[in-house]
Amino acid sequence: MNKEEPSTDEVENDSDETVEESTVSLSEYEKIKDDYLRLAADFDNYKKRAEKEKENIGSASVAYFVNAIFPLIDNFEMAMAQEEVVKEVDALNSMLISVLQSLQVEEVGEIGESFDPALHEAVEHSGEGNSQIIEAVLRKGYLFQGSLIRPAMVKVKSE
Prior knowledge:
Number of helices: 4
CATH topology of the domain at 106-159: Nucleotide Exchange Factor Grpe, Chain A, domain 2
Number of strands: 6
Strand order of the largest sheet: 1-4-5
Strand content: 15-25%
Shape: elongated
CATH class of the domain at 106-159: Mainly Beta
Radius of gyration: 34 Å
Order of helices and strands: HHHHEEEEEE
């Protein structure tokens, strides 16, 4: 008799506790169901919005990084324009270009291209005519995933 058995008082208390069933009218049930479905949809929208914000933060971080290294990129462009380029500088420039390509950064502005004010910043304009062509690129512009992060500074010639 080492086993402890519940006393008769405890057993009686347990049996006195009955589960109260609540009855809900059909209209209240429909309202609760509608509220639940709205809450589930709101939560699903929240998850999608949070995921999109996370992707946008990643893209903005890359664009910010590329913006920070524009002076380095410009200096390499000037170094590569010299008559004699040291092979180490050429190798570093190649590495920089491959890093930009891996980050999906594209150059904008080439001689002979049509002038697009959405992508190019004209600092000089010569000639008269309807078609505007880029005559010289003073500073390259860059796109990141289709978005302009720096316009190309160009001289424009009208023909």
